[in-house]
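[agent] plan:
  1. take the single chain provided in the ticket
  2. run structure prediction with default settings
  3. attach structure tokens to the ticket
  4. add a short note for the reviewer (M.T.)
[agent] executing step 1
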Amino acid sequence: MVFLLAILLRPREPEYQGKRLSAWLEDLSRTPYPEKGSEQATKAIREIGTNALPFLVSMLKAKDSMLKIGFAELVDKQNLFRIPLRLASERRDTSCDALLILGSRAKAAIPEITTLLDDSALFRDALMSLLVIGDGSVPALKHACSHANPDVRTEAAWVLSTFVPKNRGGFTTSYYPDDSTNRVFGFTLTLGEDDTVALAENLKDPDHMVRRATAEALGRHYGLAKSAVPALTKALDDPDRFVRESAAKALKRIDPPAATKAQVK
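[agent] step 2 finished; step 3 output follows
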């Protein structure tokens, strides 16, 4: 009885041109970039608009059982037959693509997406979703820089740095111009010097937790962060003890001679 009631109360899946949102998302997953065939799915998601948000957030929460993951790995190892099997990670990727299409129109979903940061299996997709929604996510990302999980706060610092107003390449947010159904940029997941420069800018943020998470993030990517040495050296005098400690650890990893010169112990 409870199960039946849940089905009856479940919101009706929105449609566009007689086709359900789930079907349009399936089309989008097949051609997520601007190859021929993605235009109609992009337009459909835009037309459905904010009515799509409950379904997209639900997709972001998708997880697979260990049994399904094991079965998928087994199927992938053999060549006798192919089984169409969509993993939860693929559904989350498609949700993120759809949120990218909606952009700032999806800002109402930010509070619920933010709750996913507490899930170690979902927080990276949640952060990417906050990124593609746009700068309306900045308050949530700043708050995430104080998360108890160091992985969450350091990755939140990286995502937050993408909103630093600079002419940057590297970790570039894809976007759809208002008059187009095709992406101008795709995600570039490689990090470069311009990204560390932008990240180092957040060592000046008024929020000490943002500064701490920024220093920690630079320390984790020490191979790319040589350009951040001056900013980290300056952060050694930060009024917050945790920022100073994080800056010192990062500096020792990035440039030991500079750390020695700054008398970092």
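[agent] step 4 note for reviewer: The chain has two domains: 11-134, 152-172+191-265.
[agent] ticket updated
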